[in-house]
Amino acid sequence: MNGQGGDLLERVLMAHGGAERWRGYSRVNASIVTGGLLWGMKGLTQDSNPRQMTVWLHEQRASVMPFGAPNQRTAYTPDRIAIETTEGQVVAERQDPRASFRDHDETTPWDALHRAYFNGYAMWSYLTMPFLFTLPGVKAEEVAPWAEDGQHWRCLRVHFPESVATHCPRQDFYFGDDFLLRRHDYSVDVSGGLPAAQYVRDYVESGGLHMPGKRRAYRRDANNRAIEAQLLVSIDISDLRYS
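Above: the chain's sequence. Below: its structure in token form.
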């Protein structure tokens, strides 16, 4: 909780359920449905079937199933991505997966392990926000507010260390009067620095914690505005269960 955003960050954490309640859980399970243009840009097809996402809250670890076959799932950590059977047999794996994106641009094709790594770090980030802002080495500072559609949102600029796998080192998070997240700006470093503005809404409550049920990430233009015709990624989250 370093930097100049301590007061805002405290209010944000409380609005999302509070750090103490968060520390009482170790894992979250959810049903996710994803879509958007990014998958086609990467030479992939994306169906609208629901998948089961599991995220460990206090370690960078995640898994989604089914993945590629009904009896397959992913096993994500920052230093390794794998596809395995539900019995634990390794189908494919890659060590130091971030390095495999070096020199990628927006339309460089992804293989199944690229996709699995992206899903792993992105969903881990989304399902641990905003509590991941309190991790060691993460710095949050309040910067100038943002006006959009007649609303004024306070902004936390968050700087992530190399030890946290995420979209990019510096990201901006905008919060409404209720201190719930409204918008998240970042660059997708694993896709040539593709600039994105992600809007979140339809909050759901589970176990006293509050998380967005819908996420919509659009390409962001030079004026920091979302290009509505370019919906890069959509994520619908339901059946959120903390344990």
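The longest helix spans residues 112-128.
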